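Work Package 3 (structural annotation) set out to generate three-dimensional models for the target panel prioritized at the project kickoff. During this period the team completed the workflow that converts sequence records into discrete structure tokens, so that structures can be stored uniformly alongside our sequence database. As a representative example, we reproduce one entry of 396 residues exactly as it appears in the project archive.
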Amino acid sequence: MAAGFEGQQTAASNFAPTFVYVVFWVGLVAASVLLGDVYRAFNPWRAIGRAVAFISRLVARGDLPPPLEYPRRLGMWPAAAGLFAFTVLEIVSSTPDDPSTVAVATLLYSVAMFVGMALYGVDAWIDRGEGFSVYFNLFSRLSVFETRATPGTGGVLGVRLPLSGLTSLRPAPGLVAVVAVMIGTVSFDGFSEQQAWVDVGGKLGDLFGSLGLSSETAFEASSAVGLAVAVAVAVAVAVAVAVAVAVGLVVGLYRLGTAGMKILDDRNRAGEMAVSFAHSLVPIALAYVGAHYLTLLAFQGQAIFYLASDPLGSGSDLFGTAEVAISYFLGATVIALIQVGLVVSGHVAGLVLSHDRALTVYSDRPQLAVRSQLWMLAVMVAFTIVALLLLLAGNG
């Protein structure tokens, strides 16, 4: 915030845009997958909330009134909304890398987080309502490292099997929406660079312009429509996966009579299945994020070294790294191979997680578990094709 408000108002010479959009937004994804939930230990909003609560107890000389109970129906919806708002800033705004814009957005987000923590308690809000905590925690469940709570120690570092962290994810309202935002927004970010969207977005911009909006506002409005549609499609796919699994169950139970038909018509059942299998989409989200932002992190991420020495763009050299240059050490072929590898491995991991959950849901009927996964296999193939087409268009 200090850099955004006080520093040079150009993205290339200001610490804030590169730190937020590259190191924080993309770099912490890689750190979470490799090392576990490191963000929880360094979450600034959680730290400030805990510090304020501690000081308040000292001033009050005793326990404070208990916070409100976090509504179960609220679930992860605030996190989904926060993530969507951030991606709107990143993708839709005409000045996303303006340092003052980044600072104002940080301030507004901080106020919202402090209100949430004041109402529902620090950890209750951070675990379910704070968008970045939920986002990075989902990716951290792909890591082999975890912290296990033990009496008297507060936590012990442990090692677990790959992907096993996602199997313990508790279903919650809004989880499907969070994963849909993760996949849908990245998909739109890639698609927005293609000629097809340039044509459609231009027509939408003309439409909004005819309503009296300025050209800049009309452009932002058309991008917002495209982003919302992309997220909605991701939601539809996620729900379709659940419905497909439910249909697979019904097919297996069809000969048992009308009970199977009742399951087919039960919307609540389909919704429960959507949440139950949502964790299998996290590796796909990682594949999309990794493939889309690979070059941004690898190259632009190096800029943080000289920006850290001169965060305000005032000519300082705090750490002696102000003259560090960006090294373009990866060739186009290597980048393409890594991107394809991420996409394929992410979808394979998603199918593995889905099959694992199906074996749990249909533990007494393993053949139904196999049948249900034929639907998931088709969905994963479709996801893979879309991701590869976006990569092909982006690299072509």
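The first helix runs from residue 2 to 6.
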